[in-house]
Amino acid sequence: MLLREAVNKKIEYKAQIPGLLVSCVLCLLSCVFVGCATVSAPKAAELPIQKFYLNNNLYYPLTEICRHFKIDWDYDSFARQISMQKADTEVKLLIDSSVALVNGVPLDIREPVRVHNGLTVVPEKFRELVIDRFYCRIIPQASSEYAPGYAIRKVIVDAGHGGYDPGAIGRTGLREKDVNLDIARRLAHLLEAKGIDVSMTRSVDKFITLEERANIANRARADFFISIHSNSARSARLNGFEVYYITDKVNDYSRALDTAGNADLHIEPASFYNTSLNLKATLWDIIYTQSRSRSIILAQSICQAANRNMGLRILGVKGAPFYVLKGTRIPAVLVEVGFVSHPSEERYLRSGFYRQQLAEAICEGILNYSRQYELAGLH
Ligand SMILES: [Zn+2]
Predict the structure, then answer these.
(1) What is the value of pTM for the model shown?
(2) How far is Cα 317 from Cα 56, in angstroms, rounded to an integer?
């Protein structure tokens, strides 16, 4: 749109001051412009990323920036710190801070990094001051093995626990496995109604090992694996909605354990994790990195929908090497819909209406992710 306006302006200008010389100058300028566009980084107007206003300032979603420029990144929700890494440049950002550390050197990015509806956003200037200067000159040629994203056509919906494994149990006896299954079924129906192919790891109350769940996901060649769980904490006061994605960071794992106080069965001991690290092959690394960035974007999309539709308290998007996620080679997220250990949340989670709302929010998050890529023509 912006490009078309610029072209129109150029044509008007040409019409007002006709002459061979002007035409030649314009032609020369066009050549220079086109020449630049092919060798330098894309300009702001050319990015297929939607900017939006926050406190009267323009912001970009950070995940979109990183996806577009193929920058590997990680978000530590406990330290509220973002690390971006590509080639030999590491950038660190702190939520609510307008200082970026570029290879340890502080840089003023004018406006603070924010979290808006569960999404990390960076000020418009950040692209020019950090991305263009430190990352664009090292952008490799577009490679087909690292597709930026895609529309979702097939999803595995995994209801956590089941059979003799009840999962967490609320103070009034609500069993996690029942809540998970009901929400998973509702989600499956909603997704199918939108034309998405759905497979469920279980559609009845039966026990399935975590390994089997991961195998089902890998065999089905689905686009995403969505695991539904309900949370539990020692403190009855902890409530909220959170989404996990797979990560290979040991620190995230130990922090997640320490902070969440989560006694859930899907957290595997660190020994499994260490063994799996040794088994990594180069190909697996590529698949893994790609899956992780897609998982983070989907996790954020689901949190946004839950916040927007239900006003839920969003505990955030977190990384954890859950076995059920770790074993899947496709992008995967684990949604913790609420705490059965919290009295009000347990009461809500008993309600079919509330479960339907949760299923609808998760469905909307998935559809928004999918639509985003369809609109951008990136699938
Ligand atoms: Zn669980």
Answers:
(1) 0.56
(2) 26
